[in-house]
Specification:
Elements: H1 7-24, H2 36-39, H3 44-75, H4 85-123, H5 129-136, E1 145-156, H6 159-165, H7 168-188, E2 192-197, E3 200-205, H8 214-238, E4 246-261, E5 266-271, H9 273-283, H10 285-288, E6 292-295, H11 296-299, E7 308-314, E8 323-328
Helix pairs in contact: 1-3, 3-4, 7-8
């Protein structure tokens, strides 16, 4: 809100301006009914500066200070010009109205600017430009909503041991290469990468923008991720490095989606049982020695063109009934 000068300097400048304008009222001007008819408009200058620099609270505070200074002058002259009492009261009300309105408008614009910066920072790298514009134009709610989505988790296998064996620079190059290819596959099928957690990827299909057949899109993305990993591994092996392995878990259900976090650190995120179950399905790839597992809820939206095998139902922590799983072949 104050890009040019620091806050203390701005406060001093506003205070000096109020003092100068107040003193000008005591300079006699021939032909005027008191100097206020000429000088009162000058009070709007520090008032506007305060509102633009400090927002609503600043506008309110300076309007109060100006009103006191303005009323103080007339308190010294009111005995001689009692007919100006209505003018004084009206002018004080005008100062307050202008200060509050300007401060409110500035606060509103600042809030919108922060929201747009948040959207650009959060979605700028991982969504198509047209989706980012939809969000910026407020066609997509970020305050919070319940909606059905498909959540995908991908996690590298045995990556900790690789970290211990290879130089840090090599490990970072490997994982960045993996993330680049996987996030590209997710994006090409309409998904959004929510976050990278260590060597894990969390992505969603169907939020923040609605996506038709999002379970199908998520499965198609997982299959492309499998193919991309094959290509990445060819390059790694050619460089004398170990190939990577990953597990992918997919589940469809309702989530709470929105801008979640503290004022210092926040992001667009999903919370709910659907997210937890998708993460646990991903982890079950270790038990079944598979690379892509999906829930029955996701399976219901798929046709028969994708080869898959049904796994025995398993009990998952936090879920009452056994979970039906399908392995992509």
């Amino acid at each position: 809100m104050m890009p040019v000068i620091n806050r203390l300097s701005a406060q001093l400048l506003v205070g000096i301006l109020i003092g100068v304008v107040t003193l000008l009222h005591f300079i006699p001007l021939p032909g005027q009914l008191g100097a206020h008819f000429l000088h009162r408009e000058l009070f709007f200058f520090p008032l506007m500066l305060a509102a633009f620099w400090f927002g609503f609270k600043g506008g309110l505070f300076v309007a109060l200070a100006i009103s006191i200074a303005y009323a103080l002058y007339f308190a010294l002259h009111i005995g001689h010009q009692p007919d100006l009492m209505a003018t004084v009261v009206f002018q004080v009300l005008v100062f307050f109205a202008v200060g509050l309105m300007l401060g409110w408008l500035v606060d509103r614009q600042e809030k919108r600017r922060r929201e747009r910066d948040f959207i650009k920072d959060t979605f700028g790298k991982y969504v198509p430009e047209e989706l980012r514009e939809e969000i910026l134009n407020e066609r997509i709610p970020l305050a919070g909503e319940i909606r059905e989505v498909t959540v995908l988790f991908a996690d590298l296998r045995d990556f900790t041991s690789l970290v211990e064996k290879r130089p840090p620079q090599i490990v970072v190059q490997m994982i960045n290469r993996y993330f680049k290819e996987m996030s590209g596959a997710i994006r090409r099928h309409g998904g959004l990468v929510l976050q990278f957690i260590g060597d894990e990827i969390e992505a969603v299909f169907g939020a923040p923008l609605s996506l038709e057949n999002h379970p199908v899109k998520a499965v198609d993305a997982a299959l492309e991720m499998r193919h991309c990993l094959t290509l990445v591994n060819r390059e790694l092996v050619a460089q004398g490095l170990e190939p990577l392995r990953h597990g992918i878990g997919i589940h469809t259900g309702k989530v709470l989606a929105g801008h979640i976090g503290s004022p210092e650190l926040s992001s667009y995120a999903m919370v709910g049982k659907t997210v937890n179950l998708a993460a646990r399905i991903q982890d079950l790839n270790k038990r079944f020695n598979s690379d892509i597992l999906l829930s029955a809820e996701t399976r219901r939206s798929l046709g028969d063109s994708i080869p898959m095998a049904k796994e025995p139902p398993v009990r998952v922590r936090g879920v009452g009934n056994p979970v039906e799983l399908y392995r992509l072949l």
